[in-house]
Amino acid sequence: MATPYTPKSILITGAAGFIASHVAIRIAKKYPDYKIVVLDKLDYCSNLKNLLPVSSSPNFKFVKGDIGSADLVNFILVTENIDTIMHFAAQTHVDNSFGNSFEFTKNNIYGTHVLLEACRNTGQIKRFIHVSTDEVYGETDEDAVVGNHEASQLLPTNPYAATKAGAEMLVMAYGRSYGLPVITTRGNNVYGPNQFPEKLIPKFILLAMKGEPLPIHGDGSNVRSYLYCEDVAEAFEVILHRGEVGHVYNIGTKKERTVMDVAKDICKIFNLEAEKAIKFVDNRPFNDQRYFLDDEKLKGLGWSERTYWEEGLKKTVEWYVANSDYWGDVSGALLPHPKAGMMPGHEGPQDTKGMLAQFITQNQAKTLAAPSASEHGAKTVENGAQVYTNGTVH
């Protein structure tokens, strides 16, 4: 096992999103000596409220911006003395990738390339943890008893998975060509509080709360494995400190369930008759039947799944019941086949200026930094922070 690694200043991309926000909160709270810098462009599935638990922490800073901006990324790495990157930022919803695949290429491949090149230019990064997905492996045979291991061939079957595999190839190449200290993770599905309801479990929960049908693609026999968000956050904590450079780690569980099983379990919690509540709809253009991972390598670092499905689902339902308006109007996301243009923020810019101001003033956050390059601007606000919004000064 590698010598334990201790970071000093971590850049977490996409941390106003679901999984990364849980990771950022866990690390910021547990390791007050680590500086945590978050970079997020606040896309439709991100929310500053996800970061409220650490917004006033002295070791936390938020930067609004796009990983595709080379000037911004280089500026942050240098001025914040970043030695570690945990790269979560990505377009992730498979349905959207079938109709908006160029956006996935731009965010997932080009954005990753910008980060890698900035790491090469600065020469100061000691860990680059790239977050990928189990979908890069493609379908697992239905009768397979051993899951895909980290050396298995990558055979992505949808545009989303293809862009994540492409990003992985860049990460691997920069590790080989430039000696960049890279680690890659590939994870099963994650669920829990704060997840945007385009994903299966929060979508079904919100629909069940409204008494509306739960749409199942195809016949519901597709098999998936689900991990609770806090278990996954712990996995990233373990990989950050104990993961070996140049290695890949699956973050998975051997406990599988069909989409139909998930729907029935949610119906049971809400006392709904599954036969009446479930509605079968057209399948995706292609829908992998099964993803199954070999998780032994990560277990060798000391990680194991802690949250049973029944417990995790109960916690998740309770959170959505208590926070039903957390995301505002998500009617477009709750459709059987949502499109990117139906999501909040796609018909016009979000009120990020107001969100940022509220985030700063109400929570005393030391947040938001801006690049000094000529094409960008910065303005110091009352609390000494700087606001950067995609080249626009606020």
Description:
With 394 residues, the protein is an alpha/beta fold. The protein contains 12 helices and 12 strands. It has a 7-stranded parallel β-sheet with strand order 3-2-1-4-5-6-10, with helices on both faces. It has a 3-stranded mixed β-sheet with strand order 7-9-11. A two-stranded parallel sheet has the order 8-12. α1 links the parallel β1 and β2. α4 packs parallel to α5 and α6 packs parallel to α8. InterPro entries: dTDP_Gluc_deHydtase (IPR005888), NAD(P)-bd_dom (IPR016040), NAD(P)-bd_dom_sf (IPR036291). One of its GO terms (biological process) is nucleotide-sugar metabolic process. Pfam families: GDP_Man_Dehyd (PF16363).
What characteristics describe this protein?
alpha/beta; 12 helices; lyase activity; three-stranded mixed sheet; NAD(P)-bd_dom_sf; 394 residues; seven-stranded parallel sheet; lyase; NAD(P)-binding domain-containing protein
Strand and helix map with partners:
Blueprint (H helix, E strand, L loop, with lengths): L8 E5 L4 H13 L4 E6 L19 E5 L5 H10 L4 E4 L6 H6 L1 H22 L4 E7 L25 H20 L3 E6 L1 E3 L8 H11 L3 E4 L5 E6 H14 L5 E4 L4 E3 H11 L4 H4 E4 L14 H4 L9 H14 L29 H12 L31
Parallel strand pairs: 1-2, 1-4, 2-3, 4-5, 5-6, 6-10, 7-9, 8-12
Antiparallel strand pairs: 9-11
- The counted number of beta strands is 12
Biggest sheet record: 7 strands, parallel
What is the helix fraction of residues, given as a range?
Answer: 25-40%
- SSE-based structural type: alpha/beta
Shape call: globular
**H/I helix tally:** 12
Uncertain runs:
345-350, 361-365, 369-394
- Widest β-sheet, arrangement of strands: 3-2-1-4-5-6-10
Mean pLDDT rating: 85
Report the radius of gyration as a whole number of Å. 20 Å
The separation of the N and C termini measures 48 Å
Order of helices and strands: EHEEHEHHEHEEHEEHEEHHEHHH
